[in-house]
Amino acid sequence: MILNIPTDLEAALIDLSLPAWKLDGSSLAKTTMERYRAELTATPRFEETVATLRHALTGEGGGYAVLRLGNLVKALGTDDDRFLRLATAFAAEVAVPFSPFPRWPLWKDIGVKVDKDPGKSSGIGYNAFHMDLVNATLPPDFTTLLCIRPDQLGGGRSILTDAHAAVARLSEGARALLSEPAYHYGTFFDLFGVGEEYKPFPVLDGSAEGEGFVRFTAKMLTRSPLGRAHADAARELARELVRGQVSLMLQAGDYLLVNQHRYLHGREALQSGQEAVPVAERRLLLQLFLRARADGGPAA
Ligand SMILES: O=C(O)CCC(=O)C(=O)O
Ligand SMILES: [Fe+2]
Predict the structure, then answer these.
(1) Model confidence over 174-197: pLDDT tens digits?
(2) What is the pTM for the complete model shown?
(3) Ligand 2 center to residue 17 CA distance, Å?
(4) Handedness of CA 13, 18, 24, 30 (dihedral sign)
(5) 2-291: CATH number
(6) Using DSSP, how many helices (H) and how many strands (E) does the chain show?
(7) Looking at residue 36, what DSSP letter applies?
(8) Which residues lie with the beta carbon below 6 Å from any ligand 1 atom?
(9) Whose alpha carbon is nearest atom 8 of ligand 1?
(10) Whose C-alpha lies nearest to ligand 1, atom 7?
(11) Atom 6, ligand 1: which residue's CA is nearest?
(12) Of the ligands numbered here, which is closest to the C-alpha atom of 247?
């Protein structure tokens, strides 16, 4: 769902000046979360806005949300971290922000590289439906993407699909194959806070229907050698994921949050002609991962 924030909240957030965040290991420090929370709960209608956001992500039928922060990025710019601190504060109301990549900053740049594998993170092609960190035993509970600049040529729509709804439309046979540990994808190197490498993994983990991860990436269909029957079952799932997809164009300041237990995400190809766009004007998203609190609650 798309979530606009109330005008009075917007005005109060623009006036707020949050301190720089601190990390505790690879997670946002508890002191920072408490400080941000204290500052934000004093703004008008903040509590009801984050309650709506949480419900969109974890309530019945939910799984993703776009929080529209366009007026905030317009007012604050991106020369300093003020806008990013506000986005971090909203994220921390959902779950604990963390970086699985020890040497990288909390927010990871996803820019546009014309010479990269087009189907991957900062490539220019179609980025097929996937879960982030699919080959970890504990993938991030939420993956979030903050749009700083959309593709000025008009491509790169975000795609989302309800993974459990797609699984429910599969044949029994396909579901049985997808429940076998016969899938693998990618490398696992120097990651933090996401458990161990999971290889091979089952797409369906035996949780009750509609529960658990649908541990899937359509990228393994072209990039990992899979047995014939298992590959066919995965292709059947990929087809259903596409059948159920929604797509949306993120605008500057839009913050997309995805509950990885329910939805898979991806990206349509960028518009051709990226070579002619100066690097500093190309599409730019910032990615942040979140770990659910043990009790599922919002408090820091
Ligand atoms: O470029 C996008 O919109 C999505 C990128 C993505 O899903 C990723 O890097 O994991
Ligand atoms: Fe992703």
Answers:
(1) 999 999 999 999 999 989 999 999
(2) 0.97
(3) 31
(4) negative
(5) 3.60.130.10
(6) 9, 13
(7) H
(8) 110, 121, 127, 132, 145, 158, 265, 267, 285
(9) 121
(10) 266
(11) 121
(12) 1
